[in-house]
Amino acid sequence: MVNNFIFVFIGGAAGASLRYLFYLSIPKVGGFPLSTLVVNILGSLFFGFIFNLSSYRSDSWVHYLLLAGIAGAFTTFSTFSFETVQMFREEEYTFAILNIILNNIVCIASIFLGMKLAESF
C-alpha cells in the first residue's frame, strides 16, 4: 500500500510537471486551448500504449507509477477515454455513450455552476 502511494506520488509529480511544460510551450490558437487538446491526446495515447505494452496488471508498479501517476496527473482525460474504450470493447454501448455524454455535458455544466457559485461569495 505505501509503495503504491509512493509510485503514484512520484508519477503524479512528473505528470503534473509535464502538463505545465506543455501549457508553457504550446500557445493558444485564437481562443482555442491547443495545449489542453495536445495533452489529452498524448495522455490517452500514452495510457493505451503502456496498458497494452505492460501486460497490464492493476497491482503492478507500472499501473501506479505510469498510469495512475503520470497519465493521471498529465491528464485525467486518458482515464475517461480508456474506460470508454473498454466499455465499447465489452459491447456496453449504452454505458459508453452515457459515459461520453455525462463526462462532457455534465462536467462542462459543472464548471459553469462552480463559477456561478463562486461569484455569489
Can you offer a commentary on this structure?
With 121 residues, this protein is an all-alpha fold. It has a domain at 2-75. The protein has helices at residues 2-25, 34-53, 61-74, 77-89, 93-119. It is globular, with a radius of gyration of 16 Å. The protein starts with a helix and ends with a helix.
- One letter per element, helices H and strands E, the order comes to HHHHH
Discrete helix count: 5
Could you tell me the radius of gyration in angstroms? 16 Å
Q: Helical amount among residues, as a percent range?
A: over 70%
Q: What proportion of the residues form beta strands (DSSP E)?
A: under 5%
Q: What spatial form do the alpha-carbon principal axes imply?
A: globular
Stretches with pLDDT under 50, minimum 5 residues: none
Report the average pLDDT across residues: 88
Number of strands: 0
Write down the oligomeric state: single chain
| Most strands sheet | none
Distance between the termini: 40 Å
The secondary-structure class comes to: mainly alpha
